[in-house]
Amino acid sequence: TQLLEQSPQFLSIQEGENLTVYCNSSSVFSSLQWYRQEPGEGPVLLVTVVTGGEVKKLKRLTFQFGDARKDSSLHITAAQPGDTGLYLCAGGQGAQKLVFGQGTRLTINP
Amino acid sequence: DAGVIQSPRHEVTEMGQEVTLRCKPISGHNSLFWYRQTMMRGLELLIYFNNNVPIDDSGMPEDRFSAKMPNASFSTLKIQPSEPRDSAVYFCASSLGRGEHYSYEQYFGPGTRLTVT
Hints:
The complex is a heterodimer.
Chain A: E1 5-7, E2 10-14, E3 19-24, E4 32-37, E5 44-49, E6 55-58, E7 61-65, E8 71-76, E9 85-93, E10 97-100, E11 104-109
Parallel strand pairs in A: 2-11
Antiparallel strand pairs in A: 1-3, 3-8, 4-5, 4-9, 6-7, 7-8, 9-10, 9-11
Chain B: E1 5-7, E2 10-13, E3 19-24, E4 31-38, E5 42-50, E6 53-56, E7 65-71, E8 74-79, E9 88-95, E10 107-108, E11 112-116
Parallel strand pairs in B: 2-11
Antiparallel strand pairs in B: 1-3, 3-8, 4-5, 4-9, 5-6, 7-8, 9-10, 9-11
């Protein structure tokens, strides 16, 4: 079974600070997705990366897929309270199946 | 466009009772997934369907769980009999397959919070 480990599990920082969360595995994934989940709602897709070394930017969020396609990172610049939530990475197993990490619970304090 | 619709949003039942969760995927999507989320185990895939056919049910905990997809616009997840350890948030997600080499973006419903007492 392929496993994804996310770190840190919890992160609480002040508004305006930068942060990076990590998603690591010993296995190779065909793709990797990042989701954000807010309380009482389902996860919402932020980005999909498919090529080793790929970097994608979404406003203040920067996503990177490792060269070997085993790990990924999410960097947030100048964090805002609206960035608060549970961030989940998910690795693609074949054509359709995803395996999810445990998540990083991020809190941005005003 | 409507997203994935799940019902009920909350369900409280007693141990031993039958529970049925319902899902309507996004129109046009050809894959449907059932997940369970708990604090201890995170988000776990239970079963998924492609073109209404169950493809992988290896995540279904035991025989008390069953899922059906009678048509492209409706799926159910049934637990019979329910137990307290089944308490969790159950999510349905759907996706539209476009290729064969990487996983497709999944769109999640709001979830059903199940409490078994």
